[in-house]
Batch of 2 targets.
Target 1
Amino acid sequence: MTLTLPDEPALAAFREDQLRLELACALYSTRGISRGLAAKLAGLDSEAFEAELHARSISNGTQPSDLDADLAALDQLLKA
């Protein structure tokens, strides 16, 4: 895929890798793409992308209630 940007001085200040990271973070934050695909788009491994998300305060989408449900399911499995 090729993305053509307007020839604007403000955009010329960004390197390609910076724009890829910005796009990846924005698309992931709106859940437009998965974390794995976003990391690939950004050109980062999963740990580096996760660190970038953390630095930008972008949530991974997990809610405390998700953890409660997972713990309850695990508790049921261990009792069986």
Note: The CA atoms of residues 7 and 13 lie 11 Å apart.
Target 2
Amino acid sequence: MDLTQKQELYISRYMRSVADVLAGRLSDKQCDRALSRLHARIMDQIGAVDKARPEDVDVLDVLRKMGAPEKQADILARVWGGESTRPAAASEPAPAPASPSAAPVHDAASKPDAPRPSAEPPVTPASAPVWLGVFSWTATQLDWPVWALRILAVLVGLVTLPLALVAYMVAYFFLVAGGRMAACGPLHPWRMFFRPTMTVVMLTVIHFAARYAIRGVEIAHTVWLNRALPDMGEWAWFEAEGVRMYFWAVVLLVPIALFSAMPLANAWDYSLKRFTQACTALYAIVVSFGVASFVVGVILAFVKEFTGG
């Protein structure tokens, strides 16, 4: 079953809405398992449409039949051992009125709005997460404005480039593993392996395809014209810069591809996935210009020699 990026976005938004409502009602492990089962059910329902390429209306109809995210979160919470947020009056009979002579009960546990004791009160983020919520959590701990941290992170990122993204991901895993911050969504290990690996494979294929194309031109010139290749000068700029271009393409795009596989909020994972694909296509275009420049240099050198110029 082949889904479009737009259809995957529909599903991702629905899953995140359910995860937001479900947060705090299940343990992290239970929440991940519940959301994984829900995603599998959604994919099964879409697969039941019996179309190789489901249409957008098919995906939206399946999500509509699954119910509102709040309702679906209630179902998952009950099934996986959490608590429902539905009003108690809807499912339980009202208690019998106490007699006038009965003494009032001052038991905090009997009051519906009484807070439950907790060894570690949950940390409320300073604002909604834009990516993974690391800066929101940090701003709350330091009592700083979150916008200031984000501006500082952008400035650091402009200097350190991919190292900033790597440090951000490491901080997220550290906070989630230590139980200091709730996960933004379930991790997909296969996706985290597949996207950066495929980025490296595509860049490598493009690089070596260009190298062998130039090598083929050199062999053809030597065999057919029975003479060595002339000095290409600036026309052979790809041979001088190709390795450096490949190195920086890998260094810059692989961390972004890995970051796009994280459970980012606000559909940033899909945006960064498309950005990585666009940059890979741009790299292929630049490499193609390098090969074309080499071929044009060979042709001009041959014409110059043939005309005696």
Note: DSSP finds ten helices and no strands in the chain.
